[in-house]
C-alpha cells in the first residue's frame, strides 16, 4: 500500500459537520463557520517521549493524542469539530499499527461528531504524530486563563493523579493489574471534559485551563495570567480511593504534577458556584471546590498550597517552598 492508498483508507465516507465544505482530497480543507469563532490548537506526541510502545498500544497512542487536543478546546469553552493529522512514520511501523492509531483517534472523534479533514504523511526515524484540532465557541463565552478574579472559588473536575498512577502501575509491571484497571483506563483513554465545559455556557465568566502537565503547572498559568493568588487546599483536592495504598510522597507527586488527567481547573464567581454545581450534576461531572482566589500583593501571580496547616508556595513543577 502506498501513501495515496493509505490516505484513501483513512478517509471518511462522509462528513458529519455541516461546516466541512471540503475534507481530504485536495491541497487543503475548506471550512465555513458562520456565527461562532474558530478555535485552533495543536499537540504533538513523539515515540519514547510522550508514550512508550511498552505500555501503549497503537490504538491508545491515537486516542491520547486526539484527547490532548480536544482537551485544549474544552479548556477554551469550545466544541471540537474537526482535526488534521500529520504523521511521521518509521520503517518499523506496520500498516496495521497505523490503522490502529487512526482507529483510536476515530473512536474518540465519534464521541463528538468530529471529522478528519486532512493531514500529512512523511517517513522518519521516530514515530511522531501531530494533531491540529479545530473547534468553535460563542465569542462572549471563550474561557481565558486571565479571567480569574479575587474572591472566586477555585474548582477542579474529576479526581487528580489517576493517569499518572495508571502509568506507574504499567511501568512497574505490578502484579494483579486487574485491581488497577480504572487507573490504567484513565491513562489510556482519558475523556476530555467537553460536555461539562459546554454546559457552563449559562455562566458568563469562568477562567479555565486543562490539566495536561499537573495542577501545579496549570494553576500557576491561571495565577500568572490573571495576576492573582490561587490559594489551594491540598487536602481538598479530590483523589481516587485507589490511591490510598500508595505512599504519601508518590500520591502528592501524581496529584500535583502527574498530568494527563485532562481534567479542568478553573475559577468562578462565588455567586455562580451553586449554578456550577447544578451543571456538574446535570452533566454527571464531579466538581470540587479546592480553594479561593486572593489578592497577590506582588502583582505577578502566585499559587499557595495549604497542607497540614502549613502554607507553602507551589511552583509550576510541583516543587513547594516556604513563603518568603
Ligand atoms: P499535498 O501534496 O497537496 O500536500 P497530500 O498528497 O499530502 O497533498 O495529501 C492529499 C490529501 O490527503 C490532503 O487532503 C491531505 O490533507 C490528506 N492527507 C495527507 N496525509 C494525511 C494523513 N496522514 N492523515 C489525514 N489526511 C491526510
Ligand atoms: Mg497539493
UniProtKB/TrEMBL annotation:
Query: Which positions in this protein are listed as binding Mg(2+) 4?
Result: 27, 72
Which superkingdom? Bacteria
State the function annotated in the UniProt record.
Catalyzes the ATP-dependent phosphorylation of thiamine-monophosphate (TMP) to form thiamine-pyrophosphate (TPP), the active form of vitamin B1.
Note, other: Reaction mechanism of ThiL seems to utilize a direct, inline transfer of the gamma-phosphate of ATP to TMP rather than a phosphorylated enzyme intermediate.
The record's InterPro entries line, in alphabetical order, gives: PurM-like_C_dom, PurM-like_C_sf, PurM-like_N, PurM-like_N_sf, ThiL-like
Question: Residue span of the signal peptide, if any?
Answer: none
Q: Name one GO molecular function term.
A: thiamine-phosphate kinase activity
- Name of the top EC class for this enzyme: transferase
Residues binding Mg(2+) 3 are 27, 72, 210
Chain positions recorded as ATP binding sites: 102, 119-120, 145, 212
Q: What is its EC number?
A: 2.7.4.16
Per its UniProt record, what SUPFAM superfamilies does this chain match? PurM C-terminal domain-like (SSF56042), PurM N-terminal domain-like (SSF55326)
Q: Where along the chain is substrate bound?
A: 50, 260, 319
Q: Which reaction does it catalyse?
A: thiamine phosphate + ATP = thiamine diphosphate + ADP
| Pfam families referenced in this protein's UniProt entry, alphabetically | AIRS, AIRS_C
Q: Give a yes or no for keyword Transferase in this entry.
A: yes
Quick check: keyword Magnesium in the entry?
yes
Where Mg(2+) 5 binds, per the record, is at 213
**What protein name is recorded for this chain?**
Thiamine-monophosphate kinase
The pathway where this protein functions is:
Cofactor biosynthesis; thiamine diphosphate biosynthesis; thiamine diphosphate from thiamine phosphate: step 1/1
**Ranges of residues in domain PurM-like N-terminal:** 25-137
Q: Which family does it belong to?
A: Belongs to the thiamine-monophosphate kinase family.
Amino acid at each position: 500500500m502506498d501513501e495515496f492508498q493509505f490516505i484513501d483508507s483513512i478517509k471518511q465516507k462522509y462528513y458529519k459537520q455541516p461546516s466541512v465544505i471540503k475534507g481530504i482530497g485536495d491541497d487543503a480543507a475548506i471550512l465555513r463557520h458562520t456565527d461562532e469563532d474558530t478555535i485552533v490548537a495543536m499537540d504533538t506526541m513523539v515515540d519514547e517521549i510522550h508514550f512508550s510502545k511498552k505500555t501503549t498500544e497503537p490504538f491508545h497512542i491515537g486516542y491520547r493524542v486526539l484527547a490532548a487536543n480536544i482537551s485544549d478546546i474544552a479548556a477554551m469553552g469550545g466544541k471540537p469539530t474537526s482535526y488534521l493529522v500529520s504523521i511521521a512514520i518509521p520503517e518499523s511501523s506496520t500498516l496495521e499499527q497505523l490503522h490502529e492509531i487512526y482507529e483510536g483517534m476515530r473512536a474518540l472523534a465519534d464521541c463528538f461528531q468530529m471529522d478528519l479533514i486532512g493531514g500529512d504523511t512523511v517517513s522518519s526515524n521516530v514515530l511522531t504524530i501531530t494533531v491540529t484540532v479545530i473547534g468553535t465557541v460563542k465569542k462572549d463565552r471563550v474561557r481565558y486563563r486571565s479571567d480569574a478574579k479575587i474572591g472566586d472559588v477555585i474548582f477542579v473536575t474529576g479526581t487528580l493523579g489517576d493517569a499518572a498512577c495508571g502509568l506507574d502501575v504499567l511501568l512497574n509491571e505490578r502484579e494483579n493489574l486487574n485491581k488497577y484497571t480504572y487507573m490504567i483506563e484513565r491513562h489510556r483513554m482519558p475523556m476530555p471534559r467537553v460536555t461539562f465545559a459546554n454546559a457552563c455556557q449559562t455562566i458568563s465568566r469562568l477562567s479555565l485551563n486543562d490539566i495536561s502537565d499537573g495542577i501545579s503547572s496549570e494553576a500557576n498559568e491561571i495565577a500568572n495570567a490573571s495576576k492573582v493568588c490561587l490559594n489551594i487546599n491540598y487536602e481538598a483536592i479530590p483523589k481516587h480511593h485507589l490511591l490510598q495504598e500508595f505512599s504519601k510522597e508518590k500520591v502528592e507527586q501524581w496529584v500535583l504534577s502527574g498530568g494527563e488527567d485532562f481534567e479542568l481547573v478553573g475559577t468562578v464567581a462565588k455567586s455562580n458556584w451553586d449554578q456550577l454545581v447544578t451543571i456538574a450534576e446535570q452533566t454527571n461531572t464531579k466538581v470540587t471546590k479546592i480553594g479561593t482566589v486572593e489578592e497577590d500583593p506582588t502583582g505577578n501571580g502566585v499559587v499557595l498550597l495549604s497542607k497540614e496547616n502549613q502554607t507553602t508556595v507551589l511552583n509550576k513543577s510541583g516543587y513547594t517552598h516556604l513563603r518568603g
